[in-house]
Task: structure prediction
Amino acid sequence: MVEVTPHANNAVPAAEVADVELYHPKSWWTTYVFSQDAKVIAIQYSGTAIAIGMVALVLSWLMRLQLGFPGTFDFITPEAYYQFITMHGMIMVIYLLTALFLGGFGNYLIPLMVGARDMVFPYANMLSYWIYLLAVLVLIASFFAPGGPTGAGWTLYPPQAILSGTPGGQAWGIVLMLVSLILFIIGFTMGGLNYVVTVLQGRARGMTLMRMPLTVWGIFTATVMALLAFPALFVACVMMLFDRLLGTSFFMPALVELGQQLEYGGGSPILFQHLFWFFGHPEVYIVALPAFGIVSDLISTHARKNIFGYRMMVWAIVIIGALSFVVWAHHMYVSGMHPWFGFFFATTTLIIAVPTALKVYNWVLTLWRGDIHLTLPMLFALAFIVTFVNGGLTGLFLGNVVVDVPLSDTMFVVAHFHMVMGVAPILVIFGAIYHWYPKITGRMLNEAMGQFHFWVTFLGAYAIFFPMHYVGLVGVPRRYPDIGGTSFIPDSVHTLNAFITVAALVVGFAQLVFLFNLFWSLKFGRDAGGNPWRATSLEWQTPTTPPPHGNWGDTLPVVYRWAYDYSVPGAPEDFIAQNDPGPQTGHVAGPA
Amino acid sequence: MSVILVFLLVVLGVAGWWLSHQRLMSKPWLEQGVPAAFPDTDVTGMPTAKIALGIFLAVVGALFALFASAYFMRMDYADWQATPLPSILWLNTAILVLASVALQIAVIASRKGHDDTVRLALVTAGLTTLAFLAGQWMAWRDLTADGYLLDGNPASSFFYLITGMHGLHIVGGIVGLVRVGARGMGGRNDENTRLGIELCAMYWHFLLLVWLGVFVLLAGWANDFIAVCRQFLI
Result:
């Protein structure tokens, strides 16, 4: 147990942490466009991610229109439908969720929350964004390329991904997709190194690892995982690009296409699946861990209560991160693998539910007898818990081989992963934006529009995905643009499909209200002040709001306590900021 | 996937060892004040750039471990025919060792302030590295001339792919070396230059290690070993 300085209540000078040399922008271009300030980069990342996310949202409308009212829209051909599902999935998982959580929130929050002036390598950080933007532009270019974007499904399984039967397979689509992913990974690696090293090296005086807010722990662990998992996608993309362009046969077996024997031979599509899912499963947690971290902070702040079991929350984040690397093959139960493999991966998959459930219990116990303020961030956090539990429970179904095999490739799987890694993290993103928008802009988001956005999104998401479980249980396969008059499918499925489509359209439009709110409040929002939620963590203690370049003015903050001192008995206010040395005459709590 | 799993186990071991020194058992809710045990924070005294490079090398390591995993998995299929090793690879290996040694000498000389030795060592390292790349190019030409083409047997596809990827990382290193070298050549021997030379040396040693791994992999010497390991890992 660490010694605590006896004079801890006297402010300790901050000068002992060396100030970093800041890059000082000289022109409008270097201040707002080619900026090296992590906060500007964060907003660039978020803006780009949300913009491309809107494209994916529109694609989901088009898919739902086809599923709900098949045959009504002539321009949605089966090929177009495949292109829509592929691009929707890839954009949402990689270009929206990963980029927004790590590039957006990571960039904004890490330096502020650990008390640094900026990321440790601002130039590489800037480069990271511009390469990400390039990746997005390459991705968008595929919409306009001859043959359109790839329609291989977001998993891009070979051999179909690069054959002429798949949209974009023998045209530009798949090539642009693979190039875009490779660029994304290169860009992410530059940013990711920054996030990790800033947490390791950039912390303010007194900010020990175990005093960091859980948001930082979540983003930190997710970034470490991403740095180790993305190379698997990189390898898979490079090898598939070789197969497609240079005629190698890494993944391509011997094939006869339209009566023609292709030049490929001997390759293994299963090899691709291993590489893809070795990235793909950690990816789920790369998205989930930042969400876990952020939601912990939202709940603690808005329930005015310290997070229950902080240590266990940290351990759980680290354990989930480590375990998530040994569960990948549960995505491949039907690939014909050895049954012992299935047994092994089912076991690891179910074990990962233990630390995850622990986190859920701790969130609920934090709420227990808390002073719950039903603010917008809190509403979204509560909605996240419910949604995550729902999606997690169906995960237990699908993690078991015998249950997964009949459910594999049905709409049940679609409903499951949308609940657990689509809706749940998105709810956290909304909560986080409502929570930190006042810090970013100095103004509150409009409450009425926010309430409308929350209720329509939350209830609407359930209207979309709850019935989808049933549709899947009846046996409706995923990836089919039209199930037609298949005899085992009851009429109720068609009715539900139409209902889901209407719900999806409504939820989609509610997001436009949210976007409008973001711009409207920028000008007309209520003045927020520096710390509207009366929160403890460092980002709320900046001398000015929004925080300027360099964040802290003349002196760096010194940290005296953890991030969760809410409702401390005897304290003058119901929160004590992390950089508050405490009352001069107060008792110095020593080690227990 | 056994190679990448073993690699991750090593990374996990290092991360676990580091975490075990981070007071994960502490009870932050009971502690107020600035911990005296750590004069500043609990950040390490190591240069930030060195830590960043270390983490980057872990990423590079994961990349090559994944290539090795894919190599072994693809090898199990019936069409695999091993590619003969161009004999020039032995020479290339020796040259790359030389480059690594030269950079190590540069590190030691810069610490002692022997500027002339630093210059000589940096130039040697640069030239030997270029020679290595030229040698790799010759190896490719030898293979092509003998009919082992990129789009031929997967063994030769992997040969070009993995050596190419390693070569690209060397090229990236040369960019760094030139930047550091420009400072070292100018006779500057400040802390930054010394750190830069150390980072270059670290990167070169690591890429040498990767190359030795790649060499063993492509030569097929690891096959029996992997076969034995498979018995345990299924």
